């Protein structure tokens, strides 16, 4: 497990997200992915290779495994356009029954905040993708487009919810 120096707003290590930061819109949802250790291990590798993002309409460069400290070039695909989303991977979590990563936005991103993608293998053998995010309007011109960005968040969360299903 790789850890960041600052506490993460989305509390990826906590099974219950109790302390939500003021001044942000907070979101949390769990989506059933499948059952069993084999499913968990396979989906965890997909998650840790950005497939939750790429299967949902994003390009990631460089391709490869998610690493703490990484500053990937994330671009959302909008038809022929590729809109950059500057980001920084804050933490990668890899325990027996919890795998995933958290990234934060950088200036130039449409929102300001943090997002965690967590895959959990429960004692009853069910596997869930947990999404947690905190966000508020991005800086500069993005403040004007906040209503459109909020709609886009709903659309992409739906895509994330289906990206790793078996």
In terms of topology, how is this protein built?
Elements lengths: L24 E11 L1 H11 L3 H4 L3 E4 L11 E6 L2 E4 L2 E8 L3 E8 L5 E11 L4 E12 L8 H18 L3
Antiparallel strand pairs: 1-8, 2-3, 3-4, 5-6, 6-7, 7-8
Gist of the model:
The chain is an alpha+beta fold and 166 residues long. It has 3 helices and 8 strands. The protein has helices at residues 37-47, 51-54, 146-163; strands at residues 25-35, 58-61, 73-78, 81-84, 87-94, 98-105, 111-121, 126-137.
Question: How would you describe this protein?
Answer:
- This protein has 166 residues and is α+β, with helices and mostly antiparallel strands.
- The chain has a single domain, classed as START domain (Alpha-D-Glucose-1,6-Bisphosphate, Chain A, domain 4, 2-Layer Sandwich).
- It is built from three helices and eight strands, in the order βααβββββββα.
- It has helices at residues 37-47, 51-54, 146-163; strands spanning 25-35, 58-61, 73-78, 81-84, 87-94, 98-105, 111-121, 126-137.
- The strands form two sheets. It has a five-stranded antiparallel sheet. The protein has a three-stranded antiparallel sheet with strand order 2-3-4, with no helix packed on it.
- A hairpin with a 2-residue loop joins strand 3 and strand 4.
- The longest helix is centred in the last third of the chain and has 18 residues, at 146-163.
- The two termini are 26 Å apart.
- The model is unreliable at 1-5 (pLDDT under 50).
């Amino acid at each position: 497990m790789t850890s960041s120096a600052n506490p993460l707003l989305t509390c990826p290590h906590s099974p219950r997200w109790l302390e939500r930061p003021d001044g942000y819109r907070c979101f949390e949802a769990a989506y059933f992915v499948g059952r069993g250790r084999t499913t968990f291990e396979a989906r965890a590798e997909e998650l840790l290779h950005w497939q939750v993002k790429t299967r949902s309409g994003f390009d990631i460069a460089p391709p490869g495994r998610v690493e703490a400290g990484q500053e990937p070039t994330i671009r959302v695909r909008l038809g022929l356009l590729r809109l950059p989303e500057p980001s920084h991977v804050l933490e990668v979590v890899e325990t027996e029954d919890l795998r995933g990563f958290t990234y934060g936005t950088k200036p130039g991103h449409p929102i300001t905040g943090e997002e965690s993608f967590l895959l959990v293998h429960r004692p009853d053998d069910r596997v869930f993708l947990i999404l947690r995010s905190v966000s508020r309007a991005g800086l500069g011109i993005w403040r004007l487009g906040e209503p459109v960005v909020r709609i886009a968040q709903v659309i992409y969360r739906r895509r994330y919810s289906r990206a790793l299903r078996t």
